[in-house]
Amino acid sequence: MTSNEYRIRELAYQIWQSEGCPEGQQERHWHMACKLAEAESLAGVQQAKPRKPAATRKAGPAAKSVPVASAANGEMPAKPAVKKPRATRPRPTSP
Asked: Where is this region: Disordered (predicted)?
């Protein structure tokens, strides 16, 4: 058994357990596991590509963070609340 088949078997078993161990779903779990294993291997290949060193990349203008509109209502997100300084009390004087 290859390492890929072993990984697919592990994934299929995890899927089967996560669904509450249903009967008669082996083929569907195996196909789902194959797709997951393929996605994992593709993600590993993409991460393995060497990146250019920072010195050789083109320097562009500094990116500013721009608030993104909420997908639910299209409004801009509220600014985060700023904490107020803690109030201080005078220390009691000893008699």
From this structure: 49-95
Run of H or E including 95 = none
Tokens of 11: 């994934």
- pTM of the full structure: 0.47
16: Cβ contacts below 8 Å, ≥ 6 apart:
22, 25, 26, 29
Give the side-chain half-sphere CA count within 13 A for 24: 0
For Cα atoms 41, 31, 37, give the angle at the middle one, nearest 5 degrees.
Answer: 15
Would you list the domain boundaries of the chain?
3-48
Burial (0-12, 13-18, 19+ Cβ within 10 Å), 28: middle
